[in-house]
Design goal:
By secondary structure, the chain is α+β, with helices and mostly antiparallel strands. It has 13 helices and 18 strands. It has helices at about 20-30, 45-50, 90-100, 120, 135-150, 165-170, 205-210, 255-275, 320-325, 340-350, 365, 405-415, 450-470; strands spanning about 5-10, 10-15, 105, 110, 155-160, 165, 190, 195, 215-225, 235-250, 280-290, 290-300, 310-320, 335-340, 390-395, 420-430, 435-445, 475. Strands 5-9-10-14-13-12-11 form a 7-stranded mixed β-sheet. α5 (about 135-150) packs across α10 (about 340-350) and α12 runs antiparallel to α13 (about 450-470). It is globular, with a radius of gyration of 22 Å.
């Protein structure tokens, strides 16, 4: 690759870029070796996934609605807080510190009082689902790599960056300044005040773009981490893929860059969903993302229900400030970027009804997939569903209460045995001004029947913790 040299140092790759500013970006990224682009997850029509039990609230990552209808957007997401009530970060940290005991280090990075990563998340670090060739996510990642390699032989692929990144790489370089709701510890897992588990693969974008012109196009995929609601389509760990292509501004016009973006991504959608390209099968919508301008979302026509359009990905023209943060001159270089949520696409392509299944070790799941699963159009055959156990939590909540804190606590105690948590009721007492919320927790193991006794024991621990750590008053 012209303009780029590689050397080995202390087990890490040292990358030498063409300009001093680009070299600085590369070195910063290696100090927090895991920075990418927030990938757009899938908003699926209800009619598409209802048969398999998946709610039609699989919105794009970052466009979050209030309360129980929170939605998740991928790369190019707005990183909007999952609750309408905004609570200052300092006040949230008090409850988060009480909820999680910090180890001295996580993956070699020292922790501090900001640490809020539960064992249920750290236990899955290094799982590398994308690198397992027979896993549905590994199959999808290889499908994307093969497609891009066929249309762009010079495209580079990255899928082994460490998931711990600096807040500069994860937020600041992407125009998400201090105080932005997406930086809240109720949305993001902090290792220390300046380091997080990446919330999007976009955290690596500037480091990879800094290699231009040696690297003009790339795909970057990996596991990303977000505190979120609990249901069949949300999980605190998921996988994203972002793509970037850069051009010499003297040789390629802005109109040509945008045309190349749309042509390329229409081809991706056509390949994944086996559909033709045209106005009847695809549509573009204008949108807003902080790191691209202009920004778009691509939908495909995928059914005959009340909302037959399926949101596939978010994309746009890389913002000049992001180019500058990568050490590039926006007067000389421009390009496009996109992102896609891999679980959401895989759930539709393979008919997988519950996002927890991707983490299952049950052979009844894994034996249904192999390297040819995409090519052979494999459709997941559901197991027998075991009966649920439901438990309610009714409480008066303080002003500092955030739904995600409760969800994380329930995950701590129940792990993957918790199928979903629904907000059943919410009201404010006019006389006292106090607000009440009622949540229903559905417990259902995917491999056996749960007893009331074992669920009651875990539910009781949750109740004790919400009173002690979230300062609620049970009703």
């Amino acid at each position: 690759m012209s303009g780029v040299a590689f050397a080995s140092l202390g087990g890490h790759r040292v990358i030498k870029a063409a300009s001093p500013r680009a070299q600085q970006v590369v070195l910063q990224s290696q100090q927090h070796p895991a920075a990418g682009f927030r990938a757009s997850t899938l908003r699926s029509p209800a009619m598409l996934l209802a048969a398999s039990g998946v709610a039609a609230t699989m919105g794009s990552l970052g466009r979050r609605a209030a309360g129980s209808s929170c939605r998740r957007q991928g790369m190019l997401g707005r990183l909007v807080s999952s609750n309408m009530r905004w609570v200052p970060v300092q006040r949230r940290l008090l409850s988060r510190a009480a909820m999680t005991t910090a180890p001295e280090e996580l993956l070699g990075v020292k922790t501090d009082s900001h640490y809020n990563v539960p064992v249920s998340v750290t236990s899955k670090l290094g799982s590398d689902l994308l690198l397992k060739e027979k896993h549905p996510l590994g199959v999808l990642w290889k499908t994307l790599k093969d497609h891009f390699a066929s249309i762009d032989p010079d495209c580079h692929f990255y899928d082994n960056e460490a998931p711990i990144v600096g807040t500069v790489e994860n937020f600041d370089n992407l125009r998400l300044p201090p105080g932005h709701p997406g930086r809240s510890p109720s949305d993001t897992y902090y290792v220390n005040a300046e380091t997080v588990l990446r919330t999007h693969t976009s955290a690596h974008q500037c480091a990879h773009m800094a290699l231009y012109p040696g690297v003009k196009s790339f795909l970057c995929a990996g596991d990303v981490y977000r505190r979120d609601e609990i249901d069949a389509s949300h999980y605190p760990i998921f996988h994203q893929c972002e793509g970037v292509r850069l051009f010499d501004k003297d040789k390629v016009s802005a109109e040509e860059v945008q045309a190349d973006l749309k042509k390329t991504l229409e081809g991706v959608a056509a390949h994944l969903f086996n559909i033709s390209i045209g106005e009847k099968t695809m549509r573009w919508r204008d949108d807003y993302f902080p790191f691209t301008e202009p920004s778009f979302e691509l939908d495909i026509y995928y059914g005959d229900g009340s909302d037959p359009w399926l949101e596939v990905l978010g994309c746009g023209i890389v913002h000049p400030e992001v180019l500058q943060n990568a050490g590039l001159d926006p007067e000389k270089v421009h390009g496009w970027a996109f992102g896609i949520g891999l679980e959401r696409i895989a759930m539709v392509l393979f008919g997988i009804p519950d996002i927890r299944l991707f983490w299952s070790e049950d052979p009844r799941f894994h034996e249904q997939f192999d390297e040819k699963a995409f090519e052979n159009k494999v459709e997941f055959k559901p197991f027998s569903k075991y009966p649920p156990v439901t438990k309610d939590i009714s409480m008066w909540i303080p002003e500092t209460f955030v739904d995600n804190d409760l969800f994380e606590m329930i995950r701590d105690e129940g792990g993957d045995q918790v199928e979903k948590v629904d907000l059943m009721d919410e009201f404010t007492n006019k006389k006292t001004g106090k607000t009440s919320k009622l949540f229903r927790v559905t417990w259902r193991d995917m491999s056996r029947t749960l007893t009331n006794e074992e669920v009651n024991a875990k539910h009781e621990i949750v109740l004790q913790r919400v009173v002690k750590e979230l300062a609620v008053e049970l009703r």
